From TrEMBL:
InterPro entries: Aldolase_TIM, TIM_sf, TrioseP_Isoase_bac/euk, Triosephosphate_isomerase, Triosephosphate_isomerase_AS. GO terms for molecular function: triose-phosphate isomerase activity. This is Triosephosphate isomerase. Pathway: Carbohydrate degradation; glycolysis; D-glyceraldehyde 3-phosphate from glycerone phosphate: step 1/1; Carbohydrate biosynthesis; gluconeogenesis. It comes from Candidatus Haliotispira prima. Gene3D superfamilies: Aldolase class I. Homodimer. It is found in: Cytoplasm. Keywords: Cytoplasm, Gluconeogenesis, Glycolysis, Isomerase. It catalyses: D-glyceraldehyde 3-phosphate = dihydroxyacetone phosphate. Pfam families: TIM. Substrate binds at residues 9-11, 172, 212, 233-234. The active site is at 94 (electrophile), 166 (proton acceptor).
């Protein structure tokens, strides 16, 4: 698998001015060949960042979107609004959205469908809680999240989706899954995708790992057979550290 996607999820960090500066610094960095670079600033910084990265290899992602296309949904942002700003990817189903905003697999499924219908690409996040891992349920949780989040999605649409495996206990904790443990779940996800679609399609899906990815552990993770990139939080907020991830 020669394709890697490294995405920076800036979460609730960086004002539009700060985001513009970080994006500018990233455009000045060299990136390894075969590595696609994506950054996900907050909604209010998207326009500024889009302007700064125009003409560069960096692609733009949003961190969330409404499942509705328009209407009386105060505070929401639609797929066509994001598309108009030059957004290509939308992160969906992040554990923080599941945990703090009550997003279920059903809501995530509706959002994936809205994103695909609008011609953007979802980055679908899945991953188990610490208790679930300790109870030996990590694989089952991930299989269920995939099955329910992808319900009713065609093979042609699946080819546009990126999966991000983010064990919740590894997010922002400095506790990375070992490359072996991470890869084991990636293989399980691919097997699940093969059963839902085909082995050929499952082999082509980009599956990122996320959870305390740092310059000093990225290489070992990316060396694993079924890991095709990273979804990075903390280490994506600084140009030098994110750039070093891009050159793994
Ligand atoms: P950290 O890299 O800060 O652990 O965050 C991971 C994450 O949640 C990316 O979406």
């Amino acid at each position: 698998m020669g394709r890697y996607i490294i995405a920076g999820n800036w979460k609730l960090n960086k004002t539009p001015s700060e985001a513009g500066e970080l994006a500018k610094a990233l455009t000045e960095q060299t990136v390894g060949a075969g590595c696609e670079v994506v950054i996900a600033p907050s909604h209010v910084a998207l326009a500024r960042v889009a302007e700064v990265i125009r003409g560069s290899r960096i692609k733009l992602a949003a961190q969330n979107v409404s499942q509705h296309s328009e209407g009386a949904y105060t505070g929401e942002t639609s797929v066509s609004m994001l598309k108009d700003l030059g957004v290509e990817y939308v992160i969906l189903g992040h554990s923080e959205r599941r945990q703090y905003y009550g997003e279920t697999n059903q809501i995530i499924n509706a959002k994936i469908k809205a994103v695909l219908a609008g011609g953007l690409k979802p980055i679908l996040c899945i991953g188990e809680l610490l208790e679930e891992r300790e109870e030996g349920k990590a694989a089952t949780v991930c299989r269920t999240q995939l099955e329910q989040s992808l319900a009713g999605i065609s093979a042609a649409d699946m080819a546009e989706i990126v999966i991000a495996y983010e064990p919740v206990w590894a997010i922002g904790t400095g506790k990375t899954a070992s490359p072996e443990d991470a890869n084991e779940i990636h293989v399980i996800c691919r097997e699940k995708l093969a059963s839902l679609y085909s082995e050929e399609l499952a082999g082509r899906v980009v599956i990122q790992y996320g959870g305390s990815v740092k310059p000093d552990n990225v290489r070992a993770l990316m060396a694993k057979s079924d890991i095709n990139g990273a979804l990075v939080g903390g280490a994506s907020l600084d140009a030098a550290s994110f750039a070093s991830l891009l050159r793994f």
